[in-house]
Structure formats: C-alpha cells, structure tokens
C-alpha cells in the first residue's frame, strides 16, 4: 500500500470524478422546477357530459373539419350518423339564415373485431372564398345541426395566422382540461396542428372502438368549428392480428380524411398543405420512410417545391420526436432523423412539432448531420439553419405523464417540463412568429415557456428564448 503506482491511480480516480461532476454541471438547458402533483390519468366515464350523443333521431355526431385542398379553399366536413345512413349532403353559405350552396359527400363504415361503426360521412366543400365565415348544416332529412368555420386568408408571405398545437390528447379529465385551456387561451388559435395519438381506444380490450366514437364527440366542440390537421401516431395503427385485424390504420383512415392527393402523396399518412403564410409538411413515423419508399420519394420531391417567398414559414409535424431527452421512447425517432435531417437543415425548416412523449420539451437550433460512420462526428451541434424541435405530446392521455428525464439535461435541450398543456404558434409576418406553451395548472393566459421565432429564410438571426 502507498506505492507510487497506487497513489497515482487514486489521483487519477479523483481527477476523473471531479471531471465527471464538472461535465454534469456543464449543460445549457433548463429543466423546469415546476412539479406537478402526481395523479393517475383516467379516462372520463362513458356517461360523461362531454360524450353525450346529440338529441334527435340519427343526429349527426363527431363532427370534424380539416383542410380539403392544397391552398385552403376547400374544407372536408366529416360526421357520423348512428341509426341509418341518412344524407351525406352539406348545405352551406356565408349567411347564417340562408345556406345557398350544397354538396353531396360519401358514406362509409367499417367493422373492427366485434364492433361495427356508425355511418361515417365525408364531404368536401370546394371553391370557398378566402378569409370568409361559412355556416354549414348537416343531417339533412331528419335531425339537422348547424356549425360554422372561417376560411384562411389567401396564401401569402405576410399573412398573420395562429396555429394551436396539441398532441397525444386521449380522453381523460386531463385531456378535457387541455382542450378547455386551448379554447380559453386569449391567443385565439385558428387551426390545430395535431401531432398524433387521438383517442387511445387501443388501450382497451380488443381496441374497443366505442372509444373512437366518444373521442369524436368529446372534441367536436372544437373540431366542428376549426380545422385540425391530422398526423398519425402509434395509437392509430390498430394492428391486432390476434383478433384478426391486420389492416393498419383501419379506424383512423375510415374516420379521418386528409387532402393527401393535393400534394401528390399516395397515402393519407404523409402530405402537405399551405395555409396563410405557412407550408406544413406532415410526416408518418409509422409508415416506411427509408430510401426508395413512397414517403421518401415524396418528401425528396416536396422540399424543393416549398416557396419561401410565398409561404415563408416551413413547419413539419411528426409523431415520434428526433430530439427527446426523456427516458420514454428515447431514440425511437433516431432512424427517421438519420434519413431526413440533412434535408431539414438544407431547406431551413423553421420548427418541427412532435408528440409521443407525454411531456413538454423545446430544443435549441441544433443539427447532427456530420457523421459518416468513420469520422466520429456524432454529437448535435448548434446550427442556425436547423429547426427548433418541440415535443408537445402532453395532451393528457390515459398513459399519464412522462416525468423521468435523462440526466444531465443535454445541451440541445433548451427547456423541458413534465406537465400537460398545449401551445400556440402565432405568425405575425414573414420574419417573426411568437410561440408560447401553456401548462394546464395555470390560468388561461399564463405562458410557461415562450420564444420569438425568427424565420430561417428571411431573418435567420439568433433568437433569445425565455421560460418562466
Ligand atoms: Fe405515441
């Protein structure tokens, strides 16, 4: 004992330990000090008021709208009638009292194990005027119901527009709080960008599809009045060969239509739309995305079509995040990141919204595209051409919060917090957008995380971010 060699080993050990401590303290981001009370997230019971079936024979229910074309002059109206097919016609117009126009849609239904759906209607209203309030009536023949929506302004570079961000919503008491906070937010979202995982019916025995119906009725108070732009998550796959259900996305594709053909896509899981001053690309984490696949070929052709002079803001939606520092779904998005991240940097995507992880996180602008197997360059680095990655899978579903984070917080992670909530992305003009995240425990106007976005094409300066 006490030999020079063992002494140097001890010294080396002390040095390594202190280096380790130093590295642990050398992180740039912020982990919120807000600690949410630990409670179980439970689904609202079937007799909850939010699931109530509208009164009247064969009354249309689960009404929802989404953009129906590339530029925002069409709207897809969807609803379900339970007793009989009824009519797929929509009456609509700009006067509440006199609906001058009508269009006929189509009706479909499906079975899933021992469940048979109601009659699902989809009807596309086309050639609408921009920036105009329309009223529409459905359920023609028996019980009618009337709703309204406002079309977006004509696509253009300096058109202000406000998007809401919601992910992984489910149908718990927390989900209801999230939706209420979105509705009561003084910053009024005009369209929801939904990043996947809708109803979590697949958490029930045999994927009890009744929970697709209850979810449709729960969110109707918002989805009937403003478009929700749909992204598919893992809870939409509904692949269950053990009960004979071998067609992936069967309930989702019957119930939720998207305008994928308008952007040259061949499947409803990846597509793009232009809305006001934004070009929005929706990607599919659970459809093939490797080289030569339909999604890869489509995205390769899509990026060069983005015209930042027409739509300065380039937003990408996906379900599984690429940059996530929680110990949930860690690195699940990695293979898609490896495939597509160089394009995101090359084409200067402004922001990427993802869900899947049931918590909130915002990244710095970083990229990790230098690695080529042999050079060892495999760490994220600051990159002004890279997007900000935001995980917003905190809608409040039955699986509960992700509150176990990787430690230390990686440098690329700017802010993270295990709370339920929603966000708004408020485009002011072609250079500036104001982003804010709201946690459900706060008052409706409180911003728990916020950031001024500077457009990557027109104003690629450093942004200062603030959290509180
Ligand atoms: Fe998910």
TrEMBL record:
Q: Which residues form the signal peptide?
A: 1-22
The record's annotation in Pfam families points to: Metallophos, Metallophos_C, Pur_ac_phosph_N
Q: Does the keyword rRNA processing apply?
A: no
List keywords of the entry alphabetically.
Glycoprotein, Hydrolase, Iron, Metal-binding, Signal, Zinc
Q: Where is the Purple acid phosphatase N-terminal domain?
A: 60-151
Residue intervals of the Calcineurin-like phosphoesterase domain: 162-360
Domain Purple acid phosphatase C-terminal, which positions?
Answer: 386-443
InterPro entries attached here?
Answer: Calcineurin-like_PHP (IPR004843), Metallo-depent_PP-like (IPR029052), MPP_PAP (IPR041792), PAPs-like (IPR039331), PAPs_C (IPR025733), PAPs_N (IPR015914), Purple_acid_Pase-like_N (IPR008963)
Which reaction(s) are listed as its catalytic activity? a phosphate monoester + H2O = an alcohol + phosphate
Might you give the EC number(s) for this enzyme? 3.1.3.2
Gene Ontology molecular function terms on file: acid phosphatase activity; metal ion binding
Q: What family does this chain come from, according to its entry?
A: Belongs to the metallophosphoesterase superfamily. Purple acid phosphatase family.
Q: What is this protein called?
A: Purple acid phosphatase
Q: Species name for this entry?
A: Iris pallida (Sweet iris)
What is the taxonomic lineage of the source species? Eukaryota, Viridiplantae, Streptophyta, Embryophyta, Tracheophyta
